Every structure is written in C-alpha cells, then in structure tokens.
C-alpha cells in the first residue's frame, strides 16, 4: 500500500480545499472538478466529515444537537478521517492509488484550526500527523476571506448556523489557521488564495496551482 507523496508521484493527486465557513469552498471545488473533467482527467470529490456513522455524530455536534467538548470532537474527526482514507469502497487511498485525482473539502487542517482553539493544538496535530493511515495531501489550498465577508455570505445563504458559524469564533479560527500554517512550515505544500475577489478570479488562481502541481512530476 502506498504511504507517502514520493511513492504516489506517478498516480493521482490529493488536493485539499480549506477555508472559513462562507469562504466559497463549495463553489471553487465544483469549478476545479469541472476543469479537470473538461481536460480529460479523472477526479473524485469528497468532504469531511464523511457520511459514515462517525461523520453523522460529528454533524450532530456541529449542528448543536449533541454537546461534545473539543477533545471528544477531535477524536471523532480522527476516527472519521482514518475511515475516509482506508475505506476499501470509496476511500481516498483507493482513488489515489488508482490514478484518480481527489479533491477534499476540509481535512486535518480544519481540525487543527477549529478544535485546536479549545483543545491542545499540539495534541490534535500529533494525533493526525503521526497516524500512518492518514495521507498527507499533495497540496492544500486555503481560501482566505475576511470574517465579516464570510459572515455576510452565511447570512445570505443559510437559515441555520453551526456552532462555529459566528463572527467571533471565525476570527479566532482564521488566526489559528495561520498559526497552524506557520507551525507546519515547509513540511506541507500550503498555498493561500485571496478568495474575496470574483469567483472567476479565484478559480483562475486555483487552476494555475493545480496545473503547477500536475506539471511538477
């Protein structure tokens, strides 16, 4: 079974799209998926939390239906992420090893930024980065948007909000994302895109980053 980016260089690429709630991840993922398919490529789009039973427990907590502390939620995300990678039917590793590009809406960077504001950040990072079943992405693209704009977008498009979808929490989370990126340094391929611009401008930058990734191997 393939374990790292070096041994996966000739097969599918694993791309993670990150950002605050309201940053436009869903729109940009759909546009990147469309681009890859139009170019004749194969792509699988997925997201965290997954649709597994553990993912359902996470969504209940995020929706405020069940109260869980940051450590419990971090552990649930870890279990769901392992399943997300190794599931033999539709796991990330299966598609990557089959030569299919994978785009994932959120990954362990979100655990670091969201649960890492209330749980011990080093503990959350060690659990994920130290697990051999959890693949390291070939590229993480972070869509950076001011929290006020994110809050405006959420208000315009949603009736209900999850537990982290308030402006004060989002400010703390945005700060934590950048602290995480600093801690990771050059151990991860993280690219930051200004997502406060038009959908087309943001998409163009993401496509350039994707092509750069594909052409570097």
Notes on the structure:
The chain has 217 residues and is α/β, with parallel strands linked by helices. The protein has nine helices and five strands, in the order βαβαααβααβααβα. The chain has a five-stranded parallel β-sheet with strand order 2-3-1-4-5.
Secondary structure elements and pairings:
Layout (H helix, E strand, L loop, with lengths): L13 E6 L5 H14 L4 E5 L5 H10 L7 H17 L5 H6 L3 E5 L2 H7 L6 H9 L9 E6 L2 H11 L9 H18 L5 E5 L4 H17 L2
Parallel strand pairs: 1-3, 1-4, 2-3, 4-5
Helix pairs in contact: 1-9, 2-3, 5-6, 5-8, 7-8
Provide a concise account of the structure shown.
This protein has helices at residues 25-38, 53-62, 70-86, 92-97, 108-114, 121-129, 147-157, 167-184, 199-215; strands spanning 14-19, 43-47, 101-105, 139-144, 190-194.
Order of strands across the widest beta sheet? 2-3-1-4-5
- Rg on CA atoms, Å: 17 Å
In CATH, the architecture is: 3-Layer(aba) Sandwich
Regions with little confidence, pLDDT below 50 for 5+ residues:
1-9
Oligomeric grouping of the chains: single chain
Helix vs. strand class: alpha/beta
How many independent structural domains?
1
Number of DSSP E strands: 5
Q: What's the level 1 CATH class?
A: Alpha Beta
């Amino acid at each position: 079974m393939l374990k790292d980016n070096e041994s996966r260089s000739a097969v599918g690429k694993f791309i993670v799209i990150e950002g605050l709630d309201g940053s436009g991840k869903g729109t940009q993922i759909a546009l990147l998926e469309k681009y890859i398919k139009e170019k004749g490529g194969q792509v699988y789009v997925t997201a965290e939390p997954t649709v597994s039973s553990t993912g359902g427990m996470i969504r209940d907590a995020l929706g405020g239906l069940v109260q869980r502390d940051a450590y419990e939620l971090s552990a649930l995300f870890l279990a769901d992420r392992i399943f997300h990678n190794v599931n033999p039917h539709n796991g990330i590793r299966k598609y990557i090893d089959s030569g299919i590009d994978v785009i994932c809406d959120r990954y362990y960077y979100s655990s670091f930024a969201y649960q890492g504001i209330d749980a011990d950040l080093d503990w959350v990072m060690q659990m994920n980065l130290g697990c051999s079943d959890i693949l390291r992405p070939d590229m993480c693209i972070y869509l950076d948007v001011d929290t006020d704009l994110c809050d405006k977008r959420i208000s315009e498009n949603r009736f209900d909000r999850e537990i982290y979808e308030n402006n004060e929490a989002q400010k703390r989370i945005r700060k934590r994302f950048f602290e995480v990126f600093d801690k990771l340094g050059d151990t991860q391929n993280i690219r930051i895109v200004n997502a406060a611009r038009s959908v087309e401008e943001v998409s163009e930058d993401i496509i350039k980053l994707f092509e750069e990734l594909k052409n570097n191997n």
